[in-house]
Amino acid sequence: MEEPWRILEFYSGIGGMRYSLMRAGIHAKVLEAFDINDRANDVYKHNFGHRPFQGNIQNLSAVELDRHAADAWLLSPPCQPYTRQGLQKHSADARASSFVKILELIPQMQLPPKMLFIENVVGFEVSDTRKHMLGIFARTCFVTQEYILSPLQFGIPYSRPRYFCLAKKKPLCFMDASLNGQLLQRPCPFLKLEDSTLMDECLPEDAAEESLLSCQPLRNFLERSVSEIDHEDACDDKKVKERSDFLGKFSVPHSLIDRWGKAMDIVYPDSKRCCCFTKSYYRYIKGTGSLLATSKNPNQELANLPEICSLKDVPLRYFTPREVANLHSFPQDFCFPQNISIRQQYALLGNSLSVAVVAPLLQYLFSNPA
After folding, report:
1. What is the arithmetic mean of pLDDT over 206-228?
2. Do the beta carbons of residue 44 and residue 35 sit within 8 Å?
3. The pLDDT value given to residue 357
């Protein structure tokens, strides 16, 4: 059996990158994971049995990294310097400095990685950090392919576009070298599409419509929540208590509907898209993620309801943390330790990544031409 790929996982979070490696079926050994977030490291250890290194990545040296002799680095650095809602200070933001430092160590190393995988928010592709990164890759003989992809393009009803950069050190090369140096917005090398033309050769709205048609309905990602238990269970005291506890946790209060009803993104179990869940979901309503209407009538269109008071007649709730994890394509055995509160669970999931998107990208990165 061939030796496993030796991996370093930077900004490891709650393990989305590692789950992606597993889903991709890559024969790999994670030598070390790095994350400064104490709660994220609690979750990582709970699921993988190993606690990531919690020191400041910025303090690592080329000599220390050489000791690992890693084949590949997987990085999901902080996104705040590049978000539309942020100050967009890019590399001038202190939260970008550790990533820049890690990149600048590559030319100093005796045993640099052969491959790198970088994930970040849309907006990174126009940043000076990305320009600096590509300059380092060019000087150190890496070829790159870049992508902006969403789970919608992989059949998941979840609108979460993200930037990805795949880099290979020569003489390694990609299966489709014709895509080198390009920024693509369709998963051309990974999915067998009848039309494998690039996004710039078709209208974005056409591509979005095509993605939605192939998506599963949201109901495939939902828990059978106690809020939807059959009326026959109404006499079961335990079921009634469970239902009451659930509604207390996840129902949207009428006071929030009064204030934010017009700003809510409301979806049904049969919907084929929902908005990205941010780390502020469950704390705030506006712009943090979709809310689920569990109406008896799935054909009812909320858009046609003229008054906010009409929303109060529709059972409206938050997606549960497990459901958000499902939309991130985390496996069923993923779970949170008891010390992680519900708000912390949402925050950690909001900072994570989509396994359904990252796994085929990693599979493509680690594959070699015949």
Report:
1. 73
2. yes
3. 96
| pLDDT, tens only, 237-264 | 677 677 777 777 899 988 888 887 788 9
Residues 6+ apart with CB under 8 A from 64: none
Confidence band, pLDDT 50/70/90 cuts, at residue 143? very high
- What sign has the CA pseudo-torsion 225, 228, 229, 235? positive
CA distance 247 to 345: 18
Output the pLDDT for position 205.
43
Confidence at residue 221, expressed as pLDDT on a 0 to 100 scale: 97
How many CB atoms are located within 10 Å of the residue 33 CB? Answer: 26
5-195+353-366, which class in CATH? Answer: alpha beta
* Domain boundary assignment for the chain: 5-195+353-366, 224-319
- The residues annotated with a catalytic role in the active site are 79
Measured over the CA atoms of residue 226, residue 229, residue 233 and residue 234, the dihedral's sign is: positive
pLDDT > 60? residue 54? yes
Cα–Cα distance between 143 and 181 in angstroms, integer? 7
The pTM assigned to this predicted structure is 0.87
Its CATH class, for the domain covering 224-319, is alpha beta
Residue with tokens 């795949």, as numbered in its chain? 166
